[in-house]
Hints:
Layout: E1 2-7, H1 11-14, H2 18-27, E2 32-37, E3 40-43, H3 47-53, E4 60-66, H4 70-82
Amino acid sequence: MNKKNIVVSDVSKEHDNPIAELVQVACQFDSNITLESDNRKINAKSIMGIMAFNPTEGMSIDIVTDGADEKEALSAIEKFLVCQ
């Protein structure tokens, strides 16, 4: 299991449809990917979960990955959310 805290950038400036694109990035990996903030935990592969979670600029999020490709998954989600 890997876990990292990040602060979300303005993803709407970098991506046309950030919610759908985030789910697409997450679905590329076999690992479980969870986003956590303020006692809320959602599956990053769930479009409804991401819509409800609504990651916005300045939000502090823990990315938690668990599985065979957890390091790669964490890196990809981090890059997406911090717009690297």
